[in-house]
Amino acid sequence: MRVSLKDVAAHAGVSIKTVSNVVNNYQHVTPAMRERVQRSIDVLGYRPNLAARHLRKGRTGIIALALPELGNPYFAELAAAVIDAAAEHDYIVLLDHTGGRREQELLVSQGFRARVIDGLILSPIELETDDLRDRAENVPLVLLGEREYDLPYDHIAIDNVAAARAAVRHLTGLGRREVAFIGARRGRSEPAQLRVRGWREELSAAGLPADDGLVAATDGWGHADGAAAMTRILETGRRPDAVFAYNDPMAIGAMRVLHERGLRVPEDIAVVGFDDVVEGRFGAVTLTSVSPDKEAIGRLAVESVLARLGGQAPEPRRVRADHRLVGRESTLGRGAADDGAADDGANV
Amino acid sequence: MRVSLKDVAAHAGVSIKTVSNVVNNYQHVTPAMRERVQRSIDVLGYRPNLAARHLRKGRTGIIALALPELGNPYFAELAAAVIDAAAEHDYIVLLDHTGGRREQELLVSQGFRARVIDGLILSPIELETDDLRDRAENVPLVLLGEREYDLPYDHIAIDNVAAARAAVRHLTGLGRREVAFIGARRGRSEPAQLRVRGWREELSAAGLPADDGLVAATDGWGHADGAAAMTRILETGRRPDAVFAYNDPMAIGAMRVLHERGLRVPEDIAVVGFDDVVEGRFGAVTLTSVSPDKEAIGRLAVESVLARLGGQAPEPRRVRADHRLVGRESTLGRGAADDGAADDGANV
DNA sequence: AGCCGGATATATAACGTTGCAAAACCGGCC
DNA sequence: GGCCGGTTTTGCAACGTTATATATCCGGCT
Known about the structure:
The structure is a homodimer.
Chain A: H1 5-12, H2 16-23, H3 31-44, H4 50-57, E1 62-67, H5 73-88, E2 92-97, H6 102-109, E3 119-122, H7 129-133, E4 141-144, E5 154-158, H8 160-173, E6 179-185, H9 193-205, E7 215-218, H10 223-235, E8 242-245, H11 248-260, E9 270-274, E10 288-292, H12 294-307, E11 318-321, E12 323-327, H13 329-332, E13 340-341
Parallel strand pairs in A: 1-2, 1-3, 3-4, 4-5, 5-11, 6-7, 6-8, 8-9, 9-10
Antiparallel strand pairs in A: 10-12, 12-13
Chain B binds a DNA duplex through helix 2 and helix 4.
């Protein structure tokens, strides 16, 4: 069976507590004793039982990360960033995905899915303010992403409005006059709201009409949803000269439809995505995209959760991570320098 | 503070064990009693403490899943499958990524990264047989992926040789005579070995030479690696009429290079990938790919781990998940039916 | 009425760890 | 030699749960 403190103590001929002291680097242990105990630990291959430690101390060393979907490479890359950041603090990440469904998000936020965690990082899609309000759970919660809540939780995100404006400004700066938006969320009002707002604001600022006929709502945020939305817009007979998509997969789905219909990107229609996923750099037409600093988001999220751990409750804060616009062929055409920042104003 | 069994017992005026019995759906509890206790549970908002339960039962309800990298959509999708399969059994998944580095894989396999787990599902890249041999750890281990080990652990994978042969057969069946392989692993011998073997075998079977000059080794398995490998092949002056890539991102990276050089896919060079990630269905040229049954792999992995949980040690087994070849434009050209199985012989 | 046996409820002892308080030790000082 | 103060080690209780064994209940049977 597994070896416990008791076994080590017996082997070394000392008390359990002394072994515990050695394991925990307690200050007042003579070097001789430390060595003797350590030897027994090594011989027996002792490893602390985390469940017992947790029961005693009330900490698990685990934080949960709940994301809408891992299939979206943005979230996968974000997950990697969180895992790495957590590892720096000797924390382990329990990953969950909600499918962006309110029901699942609710379960997660109330701690039903994972009940062994010290803290929770959640990227909500459908969750409403009220859903979070009566959250009896007392594990620290940090929110990620575009949704804004008027609640006392930390929130980490880029400045979505500014990022969306930078994307649209990039398009108008290239002379585009009719910019469609793909990916407003169907049914629910909130999500994508900020990016739609940025789109609207920037068009107004440029003296262009923000035409609702150019906003396509979707059910999801995958390639197929982007393709369907693009198709829908084209079938109304409209021919925008630019498309700004809620995220890269949708932009790529839209580009596929344009390609099928013989419309050239960017000559006929320029396309900008959001998230800067790797995939966008290797298509036949590489994709201009807003690039959030995922690494920073992951790091900030972990730090925020851990800061609230000791039961301390620092003032809830809203943190803005950096972003920048990366211009590629889908707006600049063949020969565009990959990875060049396209717009000075994009950084925040 | 948190409410425990004791509090509920006091509130309901019964013993702790009775409450425990209700919580655990113990058979012999009168409906009246059950209701009474349940009411107290609801009133007080009792929720079992998993650490205590774990300490007592020796189970955590957590399994770890260690993958090379989440950025690769195949692994992200696989992770989603595992999480879902685990949820069916009331298990939670702790996700780790190793970067495909031996050192990290070693740490994971020996349980240093996560010590609260009941079982481990590991997809190794660099780990050698000997690394796993002296694994003192006694948590059940299930291996995933292409590497084969002669060790008493369950191993879940598709038939990589057969799958690779099906891919190559598809190409030769279309009249291609010079099929390059992209993605043999540089430096280490093992990984990709099976797919290379399938490539070699099928070419021989077709009476074609398996020319080592057409095998490109790479350091990683991302888009950029595929692009670099493709570039290298072309720069030797060779003009294969088909490319079989180790995975979809590499195939897509290769296609980007072909596109840049003005080579048409599939007219000049046909391309087949591996893993059937969503991304492959939305490029300017959709990608023919070997499609492993990820859902089955996830499910089988979870079931295998859980089967070994009670300390029972069923005979280690090697499980073959299904796969099929999905033909798309990168081999069949414009107008290819998406999602059609291209080759009857592909299923196993 | 007394007894029996199954169904129901309870008391108690673990699981492995750490915090607290007390005990043992030790060198120096009166 | 006894005492003091600090250092080092120890014993014990507690964290919240479940397994085991035991006590209690109750209807039916002799």
